[in-house]
UniProtKB/TrEMBL annotation:
<keyword id="KW-0732">Signal</keyword>
<dbReference type="GO" id="GO:1990281">
    <property type="term" value="C:efflux pump complex"/>
</dbReference>
<dbReference type="Pfam" id="PF25973">
    <property type="entry name" value="BSH_CzcB"/>
</dbReference>
<protein>
    <submittedName>
        <fullName>Membrane-fusion protein</fullName>
    </submittedName>
</protein>
<dbReference type="InterPro" id="IPR058647">
    <property type="entry name" value="BSH_CzcB-like"/>
</dbReference>
<dbReference type="InterPro" id="IPR058792">
    <property type="entry name" value="Beta-barrel_RND_2"/>
</dbReference>
<comment type="similarity">
    <text>Belongs to the membrane fusion protein (MFP) (TC 8.A.1) family.</text>
</comment>
<dbReference type="GO" id="GO:0015562">
    <property type="term" value="F:efflux transmembrane transporter activity"/>
</dbReference>
<feature type="signal peptide">
    <location>
        <begin position="1"/>
        <end position="20"/>
    </location>
</feature>
<feature type="domain" description="CzcB-like barrel-sandwich hybrid">
    <location>
        <begin position="89"/>
        <end position="212"/>
    </location>
</feature>
<feature type="domain" description="CusB-like beta-barrel">
    <location>
        <begin position="220"/>
        <end position="286"/>
    </location>
</feature>
<dbReference type="InterPro" id="IPR006143">
    <property type="entry name" value="RND_pump_MFP"/>
</dbReference>
<dbReference type="Pfam" id="PF25954">
    <property type="entry name" value="Beta-barrel_RND_2"/>
</dbReference>
Length: 379
């Protein structure tokens, strides 16, 4: 068997599902027989499908070029967080008298979570009430004297001011007493508890971390500056949780950072997780975001590329039954496919298999993929 027949047989075997490795183990006579059968098969298909296709030539598969609106998916991983995560604290200092909930516990709106001893607050309220009562008596006395012209208008105004100040102090004392308790602001879950009974706690120190169930859950992840520019609010996403490996969750972009992180130079993106399943803060999740911004691209298998340098590449198209080399511009690569931005015209017959075995002007044995058949697979 000569070299041409050997190469011909290997190429056709690749296109028809027979591996070249299997042929290398056969003897010369078997290889020659395969070559003859290959030529007969191409000849029969050519005469059946298109009488103008040559009966001899290098077998190739072709497909018409079609530009389709395409958006490059954005991949990212992060952690699940509540949409509304609140730190609850006492407004006033004091000793913790009761802690009524534990970490992880579900609570109802208005439920008391913890309280301080009220002895000091009760004393402040009682003092404010006494001061107010005294200020009111002084005001009434000054008003009586004013009727007999024994008090000035200035004394009347000062008495009224004292009453107003005392009323404000009483309101403040009552307010502080009410906030000697921490209540659940909504139906939700206690994510973290940071206090114990009999501890002295200062105002503003975190006592609980609370998640509002009604607001749902989100995934926080980081994207590059290029990906940030392609994203818009409400872009759709598919989310997978390690805790639910066999399930996929729908998501959407709910918020995007307006500036990059100073350390990583990436942008934080928050995805709303659309699910009623019980989730927990800190779960690991992975997302594929589909930007709404897209452009018309041609998706081609990488094996159709003859050569490439950066995003500049070359492919074969068939014109007048002959291969013609074309320069193309790739937008990006993804998996086993390239996405062509320019260089191909709609309707061009792209050589998707067999291009590495031909030269411009070679005779071809062409087999065209049906329009309803795709050489692309879901990634």
């Amino acid at each position: 068997m000569n070299m041409q027949s050997s190469i011909y047989t290997v190429i056709f075997s690749l296109l028809s599902g027979v591996s070249a490795a299997s042929l290398s183990d056969e003897n010369s006579e078997q290889a020659t027989t395969l070559a003859v059968k290959a030529e007969q098969t191409v000849s029969q298909e050519a005469s059946t499908n298109d009488p103008s296709v040559p009966t001899l030539g290098t077998p190739v598969l072709i497909k018409p070029v079609e530009y389709v609106a395409t958006a490059k998916a954005i991949y990212g991983s992060g952690v699940v967080r509540p949409v509304s995560e609140q730190t609850l604290a006492f407004k006033v200092p004091g000793y913790v008298e009761k802690v009524r909930v534990k970490a992880g516990q579900s609570v109802k709106r208005g439920q008391v979570l913890a309280s301080l001893t009220l002895e000091e607050m009760d004393a402040q309220v009682s003092k404010a009430q006494s001061v107010l009562a005294d200020a009111q008596r002084q005001r009434d006395r000054i008003n009586s004297l004013r009727k007999d012209s024994l008090a000035s208008d200035e004394q009347v105004r000062q008495a009224e001011t004292q009453v107003s100040v005392a009323q404000a102090d009483l309101r403040l004392a009552n307010f502080n007493r009410r906030h000697a308790q921490i209540k659940a602001p909504a139906d939700g879950r206690i994510l973290q508890r940071s206090l114990e009974v009999n501890e002295y706690i200062n105002p503003g120190v975190a006592a609980f971390v609370f998640a509002d169930d009604k607001k749902g859950w989100m995934l926080k992840l980081n994207v590059t500056d290029r990906d940030r520019m392609r994203l818009s609010l409400n872009d759709s996403a598919e989310i997978r949780l390690d805790a639910y490996p066999s399930q996929r969750f729908e998501g959407r972009v709910r918020e995007m950072a307006g500036r990059a992180d100073v350390r990583t130079q990436t942008f934080e993106v928050q995805l709303q997780i659309l699910t009623d399943k019980p989730l927990y803060s800190g779960l690991i999740a992975h997302a594929v975001i589909t930007p709404s911004q897209n452009e018309a691209l041609v998706k081609i298998p990488l094996e159709s590329l003859i050569s490439a340098s950066g995003m500049d590449a070359k492919v074969y198209v068939v014109k007048d039954q002959k291969p013609v080399l074309k320069n193309i511009q790739l937008a990006y690569l993804q998996g086993d496919y390239g996405f062509v931005r320019s260089g191909l015209d709609k309707g061009d017959l792209l050589v998707v298999k067999g291009g590495s075995f031909i030269n411009p002007g070679d005779a071809l044995a062409i087999k065209q993929i049906e329009q309803t058949q795709s050489f692309l697979v879901k990634e």
